[in-house]
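Minutes, project check-in
Item: structure for the 191-residue chain
Input as provided by the requester:
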Amino acid sequence: MFNFCPSCASKKIKFEEGKVFRCPDCGFVYYHNIAAATGCIISVPSSDHLQVVRDGAERLLFLVRGKEPAVGKLDLPGGFVDVGEGALEGLYRELREEIGWTPPVPDGAGLSSVFRLFASFSNVYEYKNIKYNTCDMYFSVSAPGLRPEGLRLEQAEVAGVRFLKPEEIDFNQFAFESTKRAVKSYLRILD
């Protein structure tokens, strides 16, 4: 990441233990910590999905990635938590940005009353030749009545959405290993 010390421009900067940059010339120290990221499984009860489908199976909403990495692969709505945000605020913002939908929050209640944390995994997200080590936190929410036509997709990032029954999910089509693990955890599928 650093070829020169950002403080004194020394070429002697070292990356140690896979997490810290140290410059022996000026004493500069930089810990390359993880980035926080979220993902959300949005479950649509069967009786609410597309009105004509009443087969007793819930559908899960998946995004089709519209950009690299892993364009065309399945993903969950979510993304990086911005500076100044908690995980829930970041997830709520990402849902609004990516799919134009957010779950209703009851008056006087917080986001923790809406989302349920069910899994967390480490991940490596490579973007433009930079590897971001992430802590991915996965939440779930039920969305009765959510329909594809009620979504506004962020065209630069999302190529489409798919509402899939659990048995329709092709686990080889996931963009990221941590997302695949999260969906399996949600569905209680053991490897």
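Outcome recorded: Helices lie at 87-99, 177-187.
No further action items on this chain.
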